[in-house]
Design a protein that fits this description.
Elements: H1 13-22, E1 23-27, E2 37-42, H2 48-62, H3 65-76, H4 84-95, H5 102-122, E3 146-150, E4 158-167, H6 175-184, H7 193-204, H8 208-218, E5 225-235, H9 242-249, E6 260-266, H10 269-278, H11 280-289
Parallel strand pairs: 2-6, 4-5, 5-6
Antiparallel strand pairs: 1-2, 3-4
Helix pairs in contact: 1-2, 1-5, 2-5, 2-10, 2-11, 3-4, 4-11, 6-9, 7-8
């Protein structure tokens, strides 16, 4: 019988180190557009190591590691050797969007990558893992794509509201406008339902101190700054700056405080997405073997 050596898993620090070694950030200074643009490009082409690290982030975002570990151990309790087919079938059936739900997988990948870049490079925090709480695993998660918080001691908290558009194949020159419009019509502008959603789950899990902090934000009892940003995760080979030019020529909603655009360029993006989802099996295998992880 396969036995576990770890009960709570967070995330490999090395996964975040991988992001830093794989991608680099370069603001366009000065920007030729009426909004800041930050380019995020590859320092090296993605490989198996990158895909494994992204697979860890994908699995972490879609499912609670304790639940995954416990249920896999139940499925494997009568098996002497680790059976990767059992793990693969479990992840496909219970945790990850189905392979044929390409649009959901691609969209989730973009959200996960964008959020983790903010966590790694700018010290933002996840209040909750929104993708874990979606109504059905094959559905796209509702509410704001990204909602992160930065709360450094002695500073006014900052809430980051982000929209993510992921284009893994052909170019759509209206991607920027579509992303802007999604962000401009989001309830986070005037009635941040995402904050209410976060509060409910924090109270339900009895994280009362953190829940009270978000209640104060939501009810206007604590001042905080806002950042509204559009992430475009795009296949490098098909990208064209006309996407940015069209958004520049469009009327930007003045309610979008500190609006900016970040473009993440990835070579052979669809191949990397597919491979990263395949590597979720490796991440689940690590849970069973109980490899040491640190938060």
């Amino acid at each position: 019988m396969v036995q576990s050596k770890v009960s709570t898993i967070k995330i490999y620090n090395k996964d975040y180190i991988m992001l830093k070694n794989w991608l680099t950030t370069s603001p366009r200074n000065p920007s030729q557009y009426k909004f800041p643009v930050i380019d995020i490009s590859e320092l090296k082409e993605s490989d198996d190591e990158v895909a494994i690290a992204l697979g860890n982030l994908i699995l972490q975002s879609h499912g609670n590691p304790q639940m995954i570990e416990t249920e896999l151990l139940l499925l494997l309790e009568d098996i002497t050797n680790l059976n990767l087919d059992v793990i693969k079938e479990y992840l496909e059936k219970e945790i990850l969007p189905k392979r044929e739900r390409v649009i959901v997988r691609v969209g989730n990948f973009g959200e996960i990558l964008a959020a983790n870049l903010l966590i790694k490079f700018e010290d933002f925090e996840f209040p909750i893992y929104k993708l874990r709480l979606r109504e059905k695993k094959d559905w796209a998660a509702k509410l704001t794509d990204i909602c992160l918080i930065k709360k450094n001691e002695g500073e006014i908290p900052c809430v980051f509201y982000g929209e993510v558009k992921t284009r893994s194949d052909k170019l759509d020159v209206n991607t920027g406008i579509e992303g802007h419009n999604s962000l401009a019509t989001d309830d986070a502008l005037e009635n941040p339902e995402i904050l209410n959603f976060i509060c409910k789950w924090l109270y339900e899990t009895q994280k009362f101190e953190e829940a009270t902090f978000y209640s104060k934000l939501r009810l206007g009892k604590t001042m905080y700054t806002k950042r509204h940003e559009l992430f475009i995760v795009h296949n490098l080979e098909t990208w064209n700056d006309e996407v940015l030019q069209r958004l520049h020529d469009f009327e930007i909603d003045v309610r979008l405080e500190n609006f900016a655009v970040r473009v993440i360029y990835v070579s052979s993006l669809r191949d990397l997405i597919d491979l990263s989802y395949e590597k979720c099996v490796n991440a689940a295998e690590d849970l069973i073997y109980g490899k040491e992880r640190v938060s």
